[in-house]
C-alpha cells in the first residue's frame, strides 16, 4: 500500500461529505434501481462522480468497484482496487437521518489495506491502514472484550434472528440493536459501542470493505458467516454474510449459528 493511500481516502471522504451535505436528504431526487436493488438518490451519484474523478485521477492504475458505477472486469486484472459505497445507508440519507456514511477502501490482491468510514452529519471519521491501527477522529479504537453473549448487545437485522439460522433453533438471549448503515455498524463494533454484529445474507463488498479493515486493525475478528476470512475484488463482488466482534463474542456467535 502506498504510504499516502489513507490520506487520499480521508481527503476524498471529507470532500464527499461536503457534496452530500449540499443536498437536503428528503428533498433529493430519489428512485428505485432495477431488480429490487434498492433506492438511489441524486446525491449518491454526485458523490460517486466526485470520488471516481478524485481517486482515479490520483491513482490511475487502480481498479474501481462502486455501488453506483456499472461494473467492469477490468478491475479483476488490477493489483489494487478502490472499493466504494458513495452513500451507505441511502434510505437513512433520504429520510434526513444522520446515520449514513461514505465507505471507501483500497484492496490489494484481495486484502483491504486502507479504509475510511465517514459520517458527515456526525463528523465521525473512522480510519485504518494495515499495521497502523484504527481510530475515530484520532482516538484509537478497541472492541468490547466481553465474553458473555447472553448479556451482550449485538447489531443484527431482523432476518438474522430467525430460528432457522441458529443451531437447534435456539436464538441467543442477547439484546438486538440495529443501524441502517452496514459500514457504520462495523465501525461501532470496532469502537466497542456494541459487542458484536451479524448479518447472514450476502454482503456487497462496497458495504463492508472499509469496515473489515477497521475491525481487524482495532483487534476485533471479522469473518463471513462460515468463519472464513473475507477476500475482496471478486468477480461477483459479494461476501457470504458477516460475523464480527471481540474474539470471544465472535466465537460464541459462530458457535450458535446453524452450520451452512
Reconstruct the topology from this structure.
Elements: H1 5-21, E1 30-32, E2 39-41, H2 42-58, E3 63-66, E4 80-88, H3 90-94, E5 101-108, E6 111-119, E7 124-129, E8 134-136, E9 139-140, E10 153-156, E11 175-177, H4 182-190, E12 196-199, E13 203-204, H5 205-218, E14 221-223, E15 238-239, E16 242-245, H6 247-256
Parallel strand pairs: 3-4, 10-11, 10-12
Antiparallel strand pairs: 1-2, 4-5, 5-6, 6-7, 7-8, 8-9, 12-16, 13-15, 14-16
In words, what does this structure look like?
The chain is of the alpha+beta class and 260 residues long. The protein has two domains: 5-140, Fructose-1,6-Bisphosphatase, subunit A, domain 1 (Fructose-1,6-Bisphosphatase, Chain A, domain 1); 149-256, D-Maltodextrin-Binding Protein, domain 2 (3-Layer(aba) Sandwich), CATH 3.40.190.80. It has helices spanning 5-21, 42-58, 90-94, 182-190, 205-218, 247-256, and strands at residues 30-32, 39-41, 63-66, 80-88, 101-108, 111-119, 124-129, 134-136, 139-140, 153-156, 175-177, 196-199, 203-204, 221-223, 238-239, 242-245. Helix 1 (5-21) packs antiparallel against helix 2 and helix 4 (182-190) packs parallel to helix 5 (205-218).
User: What coarse outline follows from CA principal-axis ratios?
Assistant: globular
Largest sheet: spatial strand order: 3-4-5-6-7-8-9
Nearest-integer average pLDDT = 93
Instruction: Assign the CATH superfamily of the largest domain.
Output: Fructose-1,6-Bisphosphatase, subunit A, domain 1
Task: Give the class from helix and strand content and strand pairing.
Answer: alpha+beta
Number of domains: 2
Largest sheet features: 7 strands, mixed
Q: Tell me the radius of gyration.
A: 17 Å
CATH topology of the largest domain: Fructose-1,6-Bisphosphatase, Chain A, domain 1
Number of strands: 16
Amino acid at each position: 500500500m502506498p504510504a499516502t493511500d489513507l490520506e487520499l481516502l480521508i481527503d476524498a471522504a471529507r470532500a464527499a461529505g461536503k457534496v452530500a451535505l449540499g443536498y437536503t436528504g428528503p428533498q433529493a431526487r430519489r428512485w428505485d434501481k432495477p431488480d429490487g436493488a434498492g433506492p438511489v438518490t441524486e446525491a449518491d451519484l454526485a458523490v460517486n462522480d466526485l470520488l471516481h474523478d478524485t481517486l482515479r485521477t490520483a491513482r490511475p492504475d487502480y481498479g474501481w468497484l462502486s455501488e453506483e458505477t456499472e461494473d467492469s472486469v477490468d478491475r479483476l486484472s488490477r493489483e489494487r482496487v478502490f472499493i466504494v459505497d458513495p452513500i451507505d445507508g441511502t434510505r437513512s440519507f433520504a429520510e434526513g437521518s444522520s446515520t449514513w456514511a461514505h465507505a471507501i477502501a483500497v484492496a490489494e490482491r484481495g486484502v483491504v489495506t486502507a479504509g475510511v468510514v465517514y459520517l458527515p452529519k456526525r463528523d465521525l471519521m473512522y480510519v485504518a491502514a494495515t499495521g497502523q491501527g484504527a481510530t475515530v477522529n484520532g482516538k484509537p479504537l478497541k472492541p468490547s472484550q466481553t465474553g458473555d453473549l447472553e448479556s451482550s448487545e449485538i447489531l443484527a437485522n431482523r432476518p438474522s434472528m430467525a430460528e432457522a439460522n441458529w443451531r437447534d433453533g435456539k436464538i441467543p438471549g442477547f439484546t438486538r440493536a440495529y443501524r441502517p448503515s452496514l459500514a457504520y455498524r462495523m465501525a461501532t463494533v470496532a469502537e466497542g459501542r456494541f459487542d458484536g454484529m451479524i448479518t447472514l445474507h450476502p454482503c456487497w463488498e462496497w458495504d463492508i470493505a472499509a469496515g473489515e479493515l477497521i475491525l481487524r486493525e482495532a483487534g476485533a475478528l471479522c469473518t463471513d458467516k462460515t468463519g472464513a476470512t473475507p477476500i475482496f475484488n471478486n468477480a461477483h463482488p459479494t461476501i457470504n454474510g458477516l460475523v464480527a466482534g471481540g474474539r470471544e463474542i465472535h466465537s460464541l456467535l459462530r458457535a450458535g449459528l446453524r452450520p451452512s
